[in-house]
Write a structure and sequence with these properties.
The chain is α/β, with parallel strands linked by helices. Helices cover about 45% and strands about 15% of the residues. The protein folds into 3 domains: about 260 residues, Rossmann fold (3-Layer(aba) Sandwich); about 90 residues, no CATH class; about 55 residues, no CATH class. Bound molecules: zinc ion.
Length: about 475
């Protein structure tokens, strides 16, 4: 089965084919850097990372571009309201550039902590003003955009496909328009490409006037074109980006280049918290630090945010993160058990025992991710492997094969399984041996006390027929058996 993805544009599953063999041009709508990104934002970026990982495992070279919006994103996502970054700057009595710089740096730290592979480029909107103006001037010249004073608007009526991505029609948009629409617009759905405001702090001179700044939508069209060319294979974002943002990007890019913009549009469903919308008012726009403060690892958060299907809503609660943490521990544990079975210590009958089941689980994992990145189905395949390992039904060569797969395919795809072999400090290993000796001598009080000591040192133990398995509680890395 080839890789298939759900395309928001056509509303169906489609086989994945790229414009150029072996190369994927992928653009991800990135953050507007006026505040710390929260776990809901990260769901979309983690999806982009998982997609990129699976494409690379499938043999593609992925040219991934994720933008940083540091100007022009207004509070209402369209043409009204203050610039989000300038509003924050006013609140903190800081320079808007200081705000965007601080949050951009924080964003990169968070992405790294979450184990996201770095994109090829993270273009900043403020550094692509000439590219935006080139497109805006081109759109005016081609008759798709018009000037109104020093502002420039895109005329949606000139682009018949406007509404195809989101399922809106220009007529409906007309009917639904608010009464307070700006009078200089020819149609209420027309959107700003360039806006003029002498009070805007981040502004540029252009042929349209002295004090202008770009609209949010043109930024992505221009940055995608600059770094990936006129056509993309994949464009991703959160479901809230579909309209108006992505609809407008299509209208701008396709009218300007005369070519289809992106082949596949992929969107991540919202993250809910405690069954509802995240909001500043409820104080549940959690950051990575909030997650750490509750005693969870960012690695577990990554797992929690990618383990559901990206097109299904995901509800986040601390209980669900706790549960995800223990499922992830089981995946870490799978690696420890496979390593042990590979060494022949697990006691399965023959080296080849279980080889067929391992083959099936590996094929199922791949088929699941080829099926529109069905992570829950892929995880079920890993759990089938774990069941085989737990029941000690894997011979040494079957276990070796499974271990290679988990390390080089499953972990590479998911980015959060602990596959490093743990090491023990000499004093810890000595304590484990001392405890073994105490158990042998049936001195259970001594043995229990030593086990408690080890727990305090962050080491958990499991007694098996072949010997003791141990694990670092925090990192999940483990090993054994220690006889
Ligand atoms: Zn965008």
């Amino acid at each position: 089965m080839p890789f298939e993805v759900y395309n928001t544009l056509t509303r169906k599953l489609e086989p994945f084919r790229t414009l150029e063999p072996g190369i994927v041009r992928m653009y991800n709508c990135g953050p507007t850097v006026y505040g710390r990104a929260h776990i809901g934002n990260f769901r979309a970026y983690l999806f982009a990372d998982t997609l990129r990982r699976w494409l690379e495992i499938s043999g593609y070279e992925v040219r991934q571009v994720m933008n940083i919006t540091d100007v022009g994103h207004l509070l209402d996502d369209a043409d009204a309201g203050e610039d989000k970054i300038e509003a924050q700057a006013r609140k903190e009595q800081l320079d808007p550039w200081a705000i965007s710089r601080r949050h951009t740096e924080q964003f990169f730290r968070d992405l790294e902590d979450l184990g996201c592979l770095p994109a090829r480029v993270y273009p900043k909107a403020s550094e692509h003003i000439p590219e935006m103006l080139e497109m805006i001037e081109g759109l005016v010249a081609k008759g798709y955009a018009y000037r109104a004073g020093e502002d420039v608007y895109y005329e949606v009526a000139k682009f018949p496909r406007y509404g195809r991505l989101s399922g809106n029609s220009v007529a409906e948009l007309d009917a639904g328009a608010r009464i307070d629409v700006r009078e200089e617009k020819r149609h209420p759905a027309d959107f700003a490409l360039w806006k003029s405001d002498p009070h805007h702090l981040m502004k540029w001179k252009s042929r349209f006037g002295e004090h202008g700044f770009p609209g949010w939508h043109i930024e992505c069209s221009a940055m995608a074109r600059r770094h990936l060319g006129d056509r993309l294979d994949v464009h991703t974002g959160g479901e809230d980006n579909i309209f108006p943002h992505h609809e407008c990007e299509i209208a701008q890019s396709e009218a300007f280049t005369g070519q289809p913009f992106a082949t596949y549009w992929m969107h991540t469903k919202f993250l809910q918290v405690d069954g509802g919308k995240m909001s500043k008012r409820l104080g549940n726009c959690y950051s990575l630090d909030d997650v750490r403060a509750k005693g969870f690892t960012v690695r577990a958060l990554r797992f929690c945010l990618i383990r559901g299907h990206y097109r299904q809503p995901l509800n986040f609660t601390w209980d669900i993160l706790r549960e995800a943490t223990s499922v992830l521990e089981n995946l870490d544990d799978l690696v420890v058990r496979l390593r042990r079975a590979q060494s022949g210590a697990a006691g399965a009958a023959s080296a080849d025992a279980g080889i067929e089941e391992v083959g099936e689980a590996m094929a199922e994992f791949r088929a699941a991710l080829d099926d529109d990145l069905n992570v829950p189905r892929a995880l079920a395949a890993l759990m089938a492997l774990r069941a085989l390992a737990l029941e000690e039904r894997l011979g040494a060569s079957a276990a070796a094969q499974a271990l290679q797969f988990v390390v080089h395919v499953a972990q590479r795809a998911l980015g959060c399984i602990q596959v490093e072999e743990g090491s023990l400090a000499a004093e810890v290993e000595a304590k484990i041996r001392e405890r073994n000796a105490a158990r042998k001598a049936r001195d259970f009080a001594r043995s229990d006390a030593l086990r408690d000591d080890l727990v305090r040192l962050g080491i958990t133990l499991e007694d098996t027929k072949a010997g003791v398995l141990w694990k670092h509680k925090d990192s999940g890395a483990g090993g054994g058996p220690i006889a």
